[in-house]
TrEMBL record:
It comes from Rubrimonas cliftonensis. GO terms for biological process: positive regulation of gene expression. Belongs to the LysR transcriptional regulatory family. This is DNA-binding transcriptional regulator, LysR family. InterPro entries: LysR_HTH_N, LysR_subst-bd, WH-like_DNA-bd_sf, WH_DNA-bd_sf. The lineage of its organism: Bacteria, Pseudomonadati, Pseudomonadota, Alphaproteobacteria, Rhodobacterales.
């Protein structure tokens, strides 16, 4: 047999017809399975037998009976078609967003609240999907998305950046948390001056929320002198529960704390801290990214 110039000696299409004939044992049923005409199947079989130099089937009562050579050849090519079926299935999964790997980064307030809920829903029914997930500071999340090291980033608020796409998932303002027996627990709202007088837990100025909190005290003309200063809102909520003062945190953290241990009140001056979803600039989102983003939107709405 001579090799066809620029192609394999046995074209895959001819072997596909052969495999169908081995399954169906008639040219009519093989043609139906392949979605072609019966004459096309007969032509392909004749072409394959000519290339091979031996007969593959004998006809008995309108059925095709494979020869010993056909059985031997089929044993060799069957793994190839199993592999191709697997490739086709994986391609379908990728098209539908049910297979692949997703890289997600989030800042702690969202990484410990909205993101876990979204991840659980996203992964349900997607056994072929894996997620690389981590919680980091806002600057690290933004840079990772900008440089393509992460597919999705979740942050609370953000200055305008030209190197990432930023979508506001849920508008939110920061709130004051206090134990039910705290003097400010029954107040309709807690101002910066109220928190300063009663004692409060502050946020490090190295974080964006910390800088915003300091700015609110300055705007209100109240002294920023926290009894304890921490980096993360969740830590501030824990300390407020322990009686170390009022904690001013994002609404997402507030919604996930034990409502029996802490009550939430609006904080003034208002501090905007919306949930934002970041993706890479000028890179169309994959089906996985789009599916996960939808679960983030749903999880954020459920936190209302």
């Amino acid at each position: 047999m001579s090799r066809v110039a620029g192609g394999p000696e046995l074209p895959l299409r001819l072997l596909e017809v052969f495999a169908a004939l081995m399954r169906e044992r008639t040219t009519v049923r093989a043609a139906e399975a392949l979605g072609v005409s019966q004459s096309s199947v007969s032509t392909a079989l004749a072409a394959l037998e000519e290339r091979l130099g031996f007969a593959l089937f004998q006809r008995r009562n309108r059925r095709l009976v494979p020869t010993a050579e056909a059985l031997s050849l089929h044993r060799e090519i069957e793994p190839v078609f199993i592999m191709l079926d697997g490739i086709e299935a994986r391609a379908r999964d990728l098209r539908s967003g049910s297979a692949g790997r997703l890289r997600v980064l989030a800042t702690p307030p969202l990484g410990h609240t909205v993101a876990p809920v979204a991840l659980k829903r996203f992964l349900d029914g997607r056994s072929q999907v894996s997620v690389d997930y981590d919680v980091r500071r806002a600057d690290s999340v933004i840079e990772a998305v900008a440089f393509g090291a992460a597919d999705v980033g979740l942050v609370l608020g953000m200055e305008n950046r030209a190197d990432v796409e930023a979508e506001v998932i849920e508008a939110a303002a920061m709130v004051a948390l206090a134990p039910p027996d705290h003097p400010l627990a029954d107040a309709p709202r807690v101002g910066a001056a109220d928190a300063a007088a009663a004692g409060f837990v502050g946020l490090h100025a190295g974080s964006r929320l910390g800088r915003l909190l300091r700015g609110a005290f300055v705007e209100a003309g109240a002294p920023y002198a926290p009894r304890v200063e921490v980096r993360y809102c969740h830590t501030a909520a824990v300390l407020a529960e322990a009686g170390l003062g009022v904690a001013v945190v994002d609404q997402f953290t507030a919604r996930f704390v034990d409502r029996r241990a802490l009550v939430a009140r609006p904080f003034l001056p208002a501090i905007s801290a919306p949930c934002m979803l970041l993706t890479r600039k000028e890179a169309p989102p994959s089906r996985l990214v789009a599916a996960f983003a939808e679960e983030v939107r749903r999880a954020a709405r459920d936190c209302r």
